[in-house]
Amino acid sequence: MSLSSALSIAQSSIRNTARQTSIVSRNVLEANNPDYSRRSAVLTNTPGARAIEIQRAANEQLFRQNLTALSAFNGQSTLFNGMERLNLSINGIENATSPATALGKLQEALQLYSASPSNRNLAENTLDAARQVVRTLNDGTSAIQSFRAVADQEISTAVGELNNLLADLEKANNAVISGTRAGRDISDALDQRDATLKKIAEYVPISTYTRSDNDMVVLTKDGSTLFETVPRKVSFTPTGVYSPGTSGGKVFVDGVPIDLASGGNTSASGRIAGMIQLRDGVTVTMQGQLDEIARGLITAFAETSPTNALPAAAGLFTWLGAPAVPAAGTLVTGLAGQIKLNPAIDSAQGGNPELLRDGGANGAGYVHNTGNNASYSGLLISFGDRMNAPIAFDPGAGIVSSASLSDYSTASIGWFDGMRKEASNAADAKEALAVRTAEALSNETGVNVDMEMSLLLDLEHSYEASARLLRAVDEMLAALLAAVR
C-alpha cells in the first residue's frame, strides 16, 4: 500500500467517524424527545470510497396502532371528563342537587302535611319543597343548555386547531417529498410529519398510506380524505345559543359529517367525536329525562273533579304551554325549563297554599274538600299515592317506559352513574393501550442512551486507530523527505 493510499484511508476513516459521532451525539441529545426516531450511521461502499448512509428507525405497524389508540383514548377521555362536569352541574356532590333528592324531600313534606292538614306551616313547608323541585328542574335545564353551548364552542376551537395541524402536515409532507427527490437526509422532516400525525389523531381517527417520493395520504376512519397533497377542509358552523330541542351543527370532513357516537364505552374516536356525543347525545338524553320528570310532576299533582265530569287541569305544578296536563308517555321537549308553581296555590305569588289540600286551584268544580274541613287529607294522600303509582314515560328518554315518578327519577341517576362508570373504566383501559403502544413504538424507534454511549466508545477507539495511522504515515513521509534532503 502506498503512503498516499494509506493517508486517504485514514482521512476517510476520520471523516466517517466524525459523522457517526455526530449522529450518536444527536441521538443522546434527543433521548427524551418522544417524537424523535433513532438514527443509525451505516457505512456503505461506493466506487473508490466508503460513505455514511443515515438510516432512521421506523415501525409502520406499531405507529399505526399508536395512532388508533391515541384517537380512541382522546374520544373516551373527552366523554368521561365532560360527564364529570355535567354530574356536578346537574346532580351536585353526592346527588345533593338532583331531581331525585328534591322529589324525596317533597314526598316527606307532603306526608307530614297529610298527617296534619290543618297546620299552615306544614303547607308552607310543602310549597318550599315544591319550589326546590321546580328550581332543580329549571336550573338543570339551564345548566344542560349552557354546557351544550360551551361544547359547541369547544368543537369550533378544535376544528380550527385541526385545520392548523393539517396546514403543518402539508409543510412537513412537502419537505419529505422535496428531500426524497433531492436525495437529502429526510429524517427530521419525517419526525416532524409523524409528530403532526399524532396530534391530528387526537382530534379525529386516521389511517395513512405512502405513495412515491414518500408522499403521504391521510384518511379518516370512515374513509373520508383528510389530506392528499393539500389539506381537505374540515368545516363547522357554530350554533352559539342553545335551548331544548336545538340541533347542533355537524362537523364535515371533506363534505362528510362525523357520525354521532354512543355508549359509555364510546364508539367515538378523537376529541371532536367525544364533544359531539356530549353535546348531541348525553345532554339531549338528560334533558329528555328532566322533561319527563317535569311532566310526571304535572300529571301527579293535576286536579281532577270529584265526579270526573271535568278534564284534568294543572294543580300544584303548571307550565307555559298547552295542554295544561301533557299527554301520558309523550315527551314535551323543554318542559323542565318551563315548569312552575301554580300562582293560585303559591303563597309567594299571593296564592292560597290550602288549595293544595282542598282542591279548586282551577275553579270550584275541582274542589274536593267541599265542607272546608281543616282535617281533610284525602287529596294530599292521593297526591302521594300518585307519585308512587306507575305511569307511562317516553322510552325516547333513554330509560324505563313505565315506573313511578320516584323510581323514574332514581333510574335517571342510575342511568347517568352507570354510563359514567362505564366511561371511566373504558378511559382507563384505552389510556393503558395508548401508553403500551407508545412504549412499544419507543422501544423500537427510540433512543437507548446506554447503547449509544457504548457505540460512542467504539467510535472513540476507531478514531484513535485512524489517528495512529495518520501519525505513522506522517512519520514515514517525514523520514522520506529527510532521506531525499
Structure notes:
The chain is an alpha+beta fold. The protein folds into two domains: 3-57 and 446-484, no CATH class; 64-433, no CATH class. Helices cover 58% and strands 10% of the residues. The chain has eleven helices and 13 strands. The chain has helices spanning 3-29, 60-90, 99-115, 120-182, 187-203, 271-300, 335-338, 355-358, 378-388, 405-445, 449-484; strands at 39-46, 49-56, 206-210, 216-220, 225-228, 230-231, 234-236, 251-253, 256-257, 317-318, 340-341, 391-392, 402-403. The chain has a four-stranded antiparallel beta sheet. A three-stranded antiparallel beta sheet has the order 7-8-9, with helices on one face. A hairpin with a 5-residue loop joins strand 3 (206-210) and strand 4. Helix 3 (99-115) runs antiparallel to helix 10 and helix 4 (120-182) runs antiparallel to helix 5. The radius of gyration is 37 Å and the shape is rod-shaped.
Quick structural gist:
This protein is α+β, with helices and mostly antiparallel strands and 485 residues long.
Q: Mind sketching the topology for me?
A:
Layout: H1 3-29, E1 39-46, E2 49-56, H2 60-90, H3 99-115, H4 120-182, H5 187-203, E3 206-210, E4 216-220, E5 225-228, E6 230-231, E7 234-236, E8 251-253, E9 256-257, H6 271-300, E10 317-318, H7 335-338, E11 340-341, H8 355-358, H9 378-388, E12 391-392, E13 402-403, H10 405-445, H11 449-484
Antiparallel strand pairs: 1-2, 3-4, 4-5, 5-6, 7-8, 8-9, 10-11, 12-13
